[in-house]
Write a structure and sequence with these properties.
single chain, Jelly Rolls, about 5% helix, disordered C terminus, metal-binding, Pirin, Pirin_C_dom, metal ion binding
Length: about 325
Amino acid sequence: MPAITVDDVLVLPRLPEHDPATEVRPVRRLTTAPKGFEGEGFPVRRAFAGVPLTELDPFIHLDQMGEVDYAPGEPKGTPWHPHRGFETVTYMIDGIMDHQDSLGSGGSIANSDTQWMTAGSGILHIETPPEHLVMSGGLFHGLQLWVNLPRASKMIDPKYQDIRGSKAALLTTPDGGALIRVIAGEVAGHSGPGSTFTPINLAHVTMQPGSRLDLPWQPDYNALVYALSGEGWVGADLRPFHLGQLATHGPGDTIRVEAKTELDLFIMGGKPIREPIAHYGPFVMNTQAELKQAFEDFQKGRLGVIPAGRVPHTD
């Protein structure tokens, strides 16, 4: 089940023609994600490894989960675990992932669906492949992004958004060479369905070989481009760029990418929060004292209780 697509991109709304008077953002840093394992042992690429938090703000962490083709019995997930002080955004490209949390929320995501969990003051959750996928095996590929919450929102009540892939805003480039899926925020006047506390944009873009993307971007947002697959060039100076690499950008009005092969991108940006960060394990707070309190609250059961039974899946 690949990410949401259309038969003819030429019927979609198009980005405006690039204005030469606007400033194309330069690449500040280009890094390659190391490989690792998460949860019960599923493979990930740590997309933000080695990048200073000041260049990621308001984002904290990004894992590319897979792409892996599991044999029967191999699919894995995570055990129950806590979060406080930020939001987790899980975006599924191929395969299926189930979510369950201590609020009683739950469901399945596939085919460009997104589970957006605002941990706020604290929540417990688990992410697992459904039993039928464990039995059959199959392709698994997705992303999990952590979005920081500002100090004023860190202890808000937790909430959960189940965002269907069909709700994403779809648009293309002037020549129809790319499909742009807007998950959250606003790109060239087109808004995604995700509701955010921190002003951010999230988009999944598929580019055809030889195509060019000049994506208008808010000048007061940072800009991060991660390659999910393929090869191309990125930034004002068109630096070579391939699968597993992250490009952080300097100031400007436009993100530029050119595709050598078919190129899949996850493009992120937001208004920096510019507050102190105390981050350890599943908690993202402002001070060490708040981190200590989060661990104490978790140990004393104040972040929620594991439900007795499974939550029914969302269709």
